[in-house]
Design a protein that fits this description.
Helix content: 55-70%
Mean pLDDT: 82
Distance between the termini: 55 Å
Structural class: alpha+beta
Order of helices and strands: HHHHHHHHEHEEHEEH
Shape: rod-shaped
Largest sheet: 5 strands, mixed
Strand order of the largest sheet: 1-2-3-5-4
Radius of gyration: 43 Å
Number of helices: 11
Length: about 400
């Protein structure tokens, strides 16, 4: 089933009606283009009407309209000629290039140029007078001129469309980059917030459960002391983080990123919360700041998980720097706890994996068999060279 013809543009219909009415007025007044006059002037109304009928098709069927208009213009040359027919033909030639296929943009200007040259040479051979050049010039003005103008306008329009598309693509890429940056920043903030307060909150949860379950004033007092200390420290860290996030004037001092020099205090805090921790750190100097921060947070989260889930026994923290990488291992007893447990969501392990992945390192966590029995082992390898370049990639 053939597809229906597209509806003509309203402006094109008006253009055809105006051309027809204008041509009728010129015919009535006897205005013509001094054609051959082989046929009476009434015959000139036929090419006029045909060309006017082609105007509504100048956008929807531009090449077909040009072909029919060309035959109408040739027929008009056998009559005294109507200026409106010629004017509408020039518009059809212009529209065929402007609204036609890409092939028409290349083909029609070349074809009309060759026809103009051919007409000029033909009349020179026939008349052998310089006036033949004027005939060729008139043919070029009627055919080649509108086609060339349409090609120029078409090229400018295509260039503008291409620039607009490129601008839209650039804006889309910028929006995608912004969204990715916001997502990455939210993930970083979530990791920092989790690592900063999870240890304190876990200690609070465990000791408060112990205080509620044991009817021992001394134990309850000791547990309440640990709860108060962790509450104060957690609240201070939360206030500092929220203050930095809310401040836009830059008056607040930025929080100093923790380094491996603070591992001693971190381990002491874990011991105060009831863990038996052994620290074995042998690292070199001059570690990149991202590596130190990631290693500190990994140890902090591993100790938090040990506080929440590890069975009774010793927790070991080992750090070694070798072959351009910092190797980290934290092991804790794997088994049922004798005391209360703190709930976990799994966000800590996800955050640890993300930190290591950002530095293009390796990470594994899970139960292992060891000489001391079954343990939960967290192992990570953090490259210490070309950190900034790796994070950009």
């Amino acid at each position: 089933m053939a597809a229906p013809l597209p509806r003509p543009h309203r402006f094109d219909v008006y253009l055809g009606v105006a051309g027809l009415l204008g041509g009728l007025v010129m015919w009535k007044l006897g205005l013509n283009t001094a054609g051959s006059g082989l046929l009476p002037s009434e015959w000139g109304l036929i090419p006029l009407a045909v060309t006017a009928l082609m105007e509504p098709l100048r956008r929807t069927r531009p090449q077909a309209a040009l072909v029919v208009g060309t035959f109408a213009l040739v027929a008009d040359t056998f009559t005294p000629g109507n200026p409106a027919t010629i004017l509408m033909f020039t518009d059809l030639a212009y529209a065929a290039v402007l609204y036609g296929t890409p092939a028409a943009v290349r083909r029609i200007p070349v074809t009309t140029g060759l026809i103009s040259i051919g007409i000029t040479l033909g009349f020179l051979v026939w008349w052998r007078r310089p006036e033949a050049l004027l005939v060729g010039l008139g043919a070029a003005i009627v055919s080649f001129g509108p086609a060339a103008t349409g090609a120029i306008v078409r090229n400018h329009r295509d260039a503008a469309d291409s620039a607009r598309l490129q601008a839209e693509q650039t804006a889309l890429l910028a929006e995608m980059d912004r969204t990715q940056a916001v997502t990455a920043e939210r993930a970083r903030m979530a990791r920092e917030l989790h690592d900063m307060v999870a240890n304190h909150l876990s200690a609070i949860a465990i000791h408060s459960t112990a205080a509620l379950s044991l009817d021992d004033p001394a134990t309850s007092r000791e547990a309440l002391g640990v709860i108060r200390e962790n509450s104060v420290q957690g609240l201070a860290e939360m206030r500092r983080l929220i203050g930095i996030l809310r401040d836009s004037s830059g008056d607040l001092e930025p929080a100093v990123a923790p380094t491996l020099d603070g591992l001693g205090s971190l381990v002491e805090g874990a011991r105060a919360n009831g863990l038996d921790v052994v620290l074995d750190a042998d690292r070199g100097e001059g570690l990149p700041a991202p590596v130190e921060l990631a290693a500190y947070r990994l140890v902090q989260e591993a100790l938090t998980n040990a506080l929440k889930h590890a069975g009774p026994g010793r927790v070991t923290v080992r750090l070694r720097q070798r072959d351009g990488a910092l190797c980290l291992a934290v092991t804790s007893p794997y088994g049922d706890r004798d005391g209360p447990r703190a709930p976990g969501s799994g966000a800590g392990l996800v955050g640890m994996q993300e930190r290591v992945a950002l530095l293009r390192g390796t990470f594994e966590a899970g139960p292992k068999e060891s000489a001391d029995g079954k343990v939960w082992a967290v192992r990570a390898t953090l490259p210490t060279g070309d950190i900034e370049e790796g994070m950009r990639e």
